[in-house]
TrEMBL record:
Xref: PANTHER family: ASPARTYL PROTEINASE (PTHR47966:SF1), BETA-SITE APP-CLEAVING ENZYME, ISOFORM A-RELATED (PTHR47966)
Peptidase A1 domain location: 101-431
SUPFAM superfamilies, sorted: Acid proteases
Organism annotation: Hermanssonia centrifuga
Identification of the protein by name: Peptidase A1 domain-containing protein
Keywords: Aspartyl protease, Hydrolase, Protease
Lineage summary: Eukaryota, Fungi, Dikarya, Basidiomycota, Agaricomycotina
The UniProt record lists the keyword Ribosomal protein: no
Annotated active site: D119, D325
Biological process terms in GO annotation: proteolysis
Length: 435
């Protein structure tokens, strides 16, 4: 399904950056910055390699290609046998997959605060609700939104239904209510209330729903279109600028997010802006359960990424694009790029059991950078290795995207940059972080 891309060495060239106007200075203690937290299950650790890769396969529905150890087949995620044997080894339990970051969102009057997945790869605001069957069983592990208990809730037209690649799904109806997020209160915000959740979500104690921050095109409410929270913030003039920003946590360096405000104290490096690519792959939309959208719809934060670098060497990837996705942990790129990167590390090999590339834990890791637009961003050495493979080996955080024809720049990449998602001028701004 994906196109084959050649890897060609070339001379590195960077254009002059464009700086967005009307930004303000601030500090990390600024009230406009809000801490990005992790679910209790990941409080002191990151997801396993197995869970992280399976989540990506579930999310985007790819086949294995040369090097991807996971795939979507017959509407479930499977682990493949190995590099040279693409038969299914076993199905991946849906509950093995969770997001790494959650944010508190308060809904209703009186308000209830729920921890929602912070997700730049989807566009629904859906929550655990009192409309779920036997919802009392889950009140010890989840915060529940009850629209009937809110004085400001109004039932709205429309239903919603999200299906993921491993067969997990959620559906329900829609209310409008007051929603407070990052200090911004949004009246009449559409809230998708779950009436049914598959077992994958019922067993997931990490969140109380999802806050989608991608473009409106991939919102799944039908009958009548609803506005996303970011759309309403912009349209109602609730934020200074039509954007939001993300700095992901690394070690003791706390992460944060903001709406309408850019913090220029994060890094001394300037922010370089790149237009959002207008083409969205049909099969990526299918994987998210979004039907009948034209391929020109802007759904994801998808940008050009036409080259990468290993040390001082650069390699061309003509026509390549990448989606910036906080809901994916790994950095997933095409097979030729993956092979080139690990060929540069002494002793790196493909591990059939884990389904990905690994390298000796004491190996020297070169600087690896990916272009966004015409500027390169280097992955921090602390994030290159994702987890132990045992026996003195480490599993890499850069792996194969399978048969997809675009990359997924997940947390392994995003932790190394400060990101500005500008919905007003349809650009993404990035600045390299030093810490």
């Amino acid at each position: 399904m994906g196109c084959v891309q050649s890897v060609e060495e070339e001379t590195r060239v960077e254009n002059e950056p464009y700086y967005a106007p009307k930004v303000v200075e601030g500090g990390t203690n600024d009230r406009r910055l809000h801490r990005l937290t992790r679910p209790d299950i990941y409080r002191d650790r990151r997801p396993s390699f197995y869970s992280a890769y399976a989540r990506a396969a579930r999310r985007y529905g790819f086949e294995s290609g040369k090097y991807a150890g996971f795939a979507k087949r017959n509407n479930v995620v499977v682990k493949v046998c190995g590099r040279h044997d693409k038969a299914t080894d076993h199905e991946v339990p849906a509950e093995s997959v969770q997001n790494e970051y959650v944010v508190p969102v308060t809904i209703g009057n009186p308000g209830v605060t729920l921890n929602l997945d912070f997700d730049t790869g989807s566009s629904d605001l859906w929550v655990w609700s009192s409309e779920l069957a036997k919802v009392s069983q889950y009140t010890n592990t989840h915060s529940i939104y009850n629209p009937k208990a809110s004085r400001t809730a109004r039932h709205a037209h429309g239903t919603w239904d999200i299906s993921y690649g491993d067969g997990s799904s959620a559906s329900g109806d829609v209310y409008t209510d007051i929603v407070t997020l990052a200090g911004v209160t949004i009246p009449n915000q559409a809230v998708e209330c779950s009436k049914w959740l598959s077992s994958a979500f019922l067993k997931d104690g990490g969140n109380d729903g999802l806050l989608g921050l991608a473009w409106p095109a991939i919102n799944t409410v039908n009958t009548r279109r609803v506005k996303t929270p970011v759309e309403n913030m912009i349209d109602q003039g609730l934020i200074e600028e039509p954007l939001f920003t993300v700095k992901l946590s690394r070690g003791h360096h706390a992460g944060f997010y903001s709406f309408g405000y850019i913090d220029h104290t994060v890094t001394p490096h300037g922010i370089t802006y790149t237009p959002v690519d207008k083409w969205v792959a049909d099969f990526a939309l299918d994987a998210l359960g979004v039907p009948n959208l034209p391929t020109s719809s802007q759904g994801f934060w998808q940008v050009s990424s036409r080259s990468f670098a290993i040390g001082s060497r650069t390699f061309s990837r003509h026509g390549n694009t990448a989606i910036l996705d906080t809901g994916t942990s790994l950095c997933l790129v095409d097979d030729d790029t993956v092979r080139t990167i690990y060929d540069s590390i002494d002793g790196a090999i493909y591990d059939d059991r884990h389904g990905g590339w690994k390298y000796p834990s004491d190996a020297r890791i070169p600087n690896v950078a990916f272009a966004v637009g015409d500027k390169y961003y280097t992955i921090h050495p602390d994030d290159f290795g994702f987890g132990s493979a045992g026996h003195g080996y480490t599993l890499g955080g850069i792996q194969s995207r399978g048969d997809m024809n675009f990359d997924i720049f997940g947390d392994v990449f995003l932790k190394s940059v400060y990101v500005v998602f500008n919905q007003g001028d349809k650009t993404v701004g990035l600045a390299q972080r030093d810490e």
